[in-house]
């Protein structure tokens, strides 16, 4: 192995200060010049970004306010319609009893067989009610009838109308219209759309009921509707199919013609009956005259 000689000496190399200062000064000057330009660019970019952020915050705030108003109105309308439906349902169930009338059950079975309805709805009789017949229930349909002395023909019209609603699932359609209306509460055209759609449902139901009816039967049907329009003091629920389609029903041209022809026939009959009565009275008076002269 090689022997190393270690001497107790330290070697110091001294660099002249002139060289270090000249080396340091040149970059510092260039650095200061470049820093000022860079700071200006940074200031401009930061100002632009801040302005964009301010504009963005203003837009987000407006959208947030509008979204909050929309959510608030959707919640208010949903609660309003839900509470109205629950109150109506609770009141109708409280003041009604299950139908025990054999005649009503017989008519219901006949109509169910005629319309080919799979699930027969339950019938309940309302006591001291100021509203007309209606159907309600989303999952299980219930037909509510006022406690009246019904004629068999009137009862057949009423029950057929309500059972057609059950067959066509009109309550689900009305619920769909209501949901769309609540979501688009700000659009007036949606409110009109819902109104016209519900009117079309009632008219379609009336057309099924009077599919094979003559003018006299149409007149009787219109009289039943108008009688309940006058009696009823309450509006129907959006989640119930009401028999009270009277004004809509009477706007139909066929119904107007039927009522007009039936009323003209009735007036003609009355006029002929009056003429016959007048003729009889004149005959009686003519028979009495010679008797008075002989006496």
Summary of the model, kept short:
71% of the residues lie in helices and 6% in strands. The protein has 295 residues and is α+β, with helices and mostly antiparallel strands. The longest helix has 78 residues.
Provide a descriptive summary of the structure in words.
The protein is of the alpha+beta class and 295 residues long. A five-stranded mixed sheet has the order 1-2-4-3-5, sandwiched between helices. The protein starts with 16 loop residues before the first helix and ends with a helix. The C terminus is likely disordered.
Helix and strand run:
HEHEEEHHHHEHH
- SS-based class: alpha+beta
Low-confidence parts lasting 5 or more residues at pLDDT below 50? 19-24, 26-33, 256-260, 288-295
Strands, count: 5
Kindly provide the radius of gyration, computed on alpha-carbon positions and rounded to a whole number of angstroms: 44 Å
- Sheet with the most strands: spatial strand order: 1-2-4-3-5
N-C termini distance: 188 Å
Overall morphology: elongated
Total DSSP helices: 8
Largest sheet, in brief, is: 5 strands, mixed
Q: Considering DSSP H and I runs of 4 or more, what fraction of the residues is helical?
A: over 70%
Mean pLDDT across all amino acids = 75
Percent in strands: 5-15%
